[in-house]
Write a structure and sequence with these properties.
Helices cover 26% and strands 24% of the residues. It is built from 3 helices and 12 strands, in the order H-H-E-E-H-E-E-E-E-E-E-E-E-E-E. The radius of gyration is 28 Å and the shape is elongated. The structure holds FE2/S2 (inorganic) cluster.
Length: 175
């Protein structure tokens, strides 16, 4: 039976609608692919993880003490001395275990193969080849200590540190 003009028009508009639908489908697919690519380019930590730890005001840290409040959450110790403050990365430089602060001997001791580190992070004993790393520290406008967890600083052989923020000087009794 021959198609009427009306039937032919309906068929044409159905084909056009299908074409539009598939064009939108392709666009949505490409957009989803682009999102996947962008996520792959920027690691999860940069998109989702907080890079900057706002640890508190200077008086929150006791002189001579190793602050362990952020050990389990951020793997960082904050150490305040008479001269200033710094943040150590709690990762053994031998094979990556988490050392423990042993107050009685004033050392960070690694439970895995016995490496020991001084209060400033220097490797003292065991197989650890280098000192503990540090995270840069600074103060924000409100005077809170900010630890940049996205960068690490290494101690050089001459005893200096490889980047700014390895040590934040604090006046005695300073805030
Ligand atoms: S991982 Fe710390 S001593 Fe081996």
């Amino acid at each position: 039976m021959p198609q009427t003009e009306e039937q032919a028009r309906k068929g044409l508009s159905r084909r056009r609608a299908l074409k539009r639908l598939s064009a939108w489908g392709i666009l949505v697919f490409l957009a989803a692919q682009a999102v996947i690519w962008i996520r792959a380019l920027f690691p999860r930590t940069r998109l989702e993880g907080p890079r900057f730890l706002r640890a508190g005001k200077i008086p929150d840290f006791q002189v001579g003490a190793v602050d362990q409040r952020f050990l389990s959450s951020h793997r960082v110790w904050i150490v305040r001395t008479r001269e200033g403050i710094y943040a150590l990365y709690a990762r053994c430089t031998h094979l990556g275990c988490t050392p423990a602060w042993v107050k009685t001997v004033k050392k960070f001791k690694c439970p895995c193969h016995g490496s020991g580190f001084a209060l400033d992070g220097t490797n003292l004993e065991g197989p650890a080849p280098t000192p503990l790393e540090r995270f840069p520290v600074s103060l924000d406008r409100e005077g809170r200590l900010v630890v940049d967890l996205g960068r690490r600083i290494h101690k050089r052989r001459d005893g200096t540190w490889s980047g700014p923020g390895a040590f934040l000087p604090v006046r005695p009794g300073g805030e």
